Amino acid sequence: MKRILLIISCTMLAIGTSGGPIMIRLYFLHGGHRVWLCSFLESGGFPIILIPLFISYIRRRRSAAANQSAKIKMVLIEPPLFFASLVIGLITGLSTFFFAFGVSRLPVTTSSLILATQLVFNALFSFLLVKQKFRVYSVNTIVLLTIAAGILALHSSGDRPSGETSKKYLVGFIITVLVALLDGFIFPVVELAYKKVKQTISYTLVLEVQFVMCTSASLFSIIGMIVNNDFKLISSEARQFEHGAVVYGIVLVTIAVLFQFLLLGGIGVVFCASSLLSGVIIAAILPVTEILAVIFFKEKFNAEKGVALILSLWGFATYFYGETKQAKKMKKNLLPPEAEVLQVLPVSNA
C-alpha cells in the first residue's frame, strides 16, 4: 500500500512541479493581471484534501469497529500543532504571493532556475532550526546553486520580456529569490513543529496539517484580493481574456488543481520516503519545465541559462549522492553486530 502511495505521490509531484508555473505564466501572458488571485489559487484548491481525509477516516472507523476498540477521533491534529500550522500557513501565503508576482515578471526558464536555489536556504535553515550538520557535499551544492543564480543575475538583460523595464525585471528577480528563501524556510520549520509536538506523525495527520496551512494561506490571499478589488475585476478580466471566458475559467481551475498536486505529492513523497527524494524529483523535473516553457512560450534559452541549468543539476546530483551515502552509513551504524553477521551468512533450505 505504501509503495502504491509513493508512486501516486511521485506522479502528482512531477505533474504539479512542471505544470503549475507553466499555467500561471499562461494566465499572465494571455490577459491575466491579478497577482493576488494567482496567489489564492496556489493554495485555494485545499478542499481536494478532504477526499483522502474522508477515506482515511472511513478506514480508521472500520478498523476500530473490526477490532472493537475505542471510538476514534474524526480530527487528529491537536491545538499546539494546529496553531503552528496556522502561522506557517501565513508564511506560505506570503510565499505564494511572491511566487505569482515573480512569474508575472520573469520567463519560466529564469524563475525555475532561481527557485532551484531553495535547497541552499533549506540547508541553512535546517542547520539553524533542526541542527542538521553541514557536510562537504551540501556546501558544494550551495556554492554551485549560488553561482548558477549569480550567472542569471549578471546576464539578465537579454532575457527581459519585451515591454518590461529593467527595474520591473529586477524587482521580479529579487522577489523570486525571496520565494526560494521562504520555501527553504517552510520545510525546516514544519520539521521543527513535528519535533516539538507530542503527537505520533501519521499520513492522516500530515494531510490535516497541510489542510490547515492551505486554509490559512488562502485566507491571507483573500484579504489581499479584497484590498486590491480583485473580486470586482475578475468578471471583466474573464471577458477580456485572449481566449475567452470559458478558457479563462479552465486556466484558473487547472492552476488550483496542479498546485494541490504539487503540495499533496510533496508531502506524500516525504512521508513514504524522504524529503531527499522529493528534492530529487523536483530537480529531475527542472529540465522538463524549461523545455515546456521554450516550446509553448518561445522563451529564449541562451548559453547563460544552459550553464545555470547544468550547475543546478550538478548541485542536485552532488546533494543526492552525498545524502544517499550518508543514509547508508547511518543505517549500517544502527545495525547490531548480530544483524551484520546474519546478513553475510548463506541461507540454507535444509
UniProtKB/TrEMBL annotation:
This is Probable purine permease. Pfam families: PUNUT. Belongs to the purine permeases (TC 2.A.7.14) family. One of its GO terms (cellular component) is membrane. GO terms for molecular function: purine nucleobase transmembrane transporter activity; purine nucleoside transmembrane transporter activity. InterPro entries: EmrE-like (IPR037185), PUP_plant (IPR030182). Keywords: Membrane, Transmembrane, Transmembrane helix, Transport. The chain crosses the membrane at residues 35-58, 79-101, 113-130, 137-157, 169-193, 205-227, 247-269, 276-297, 303-322. It comes from the Eukaryota. It is a multi-pass membrane protein. It is found in: Membrane.
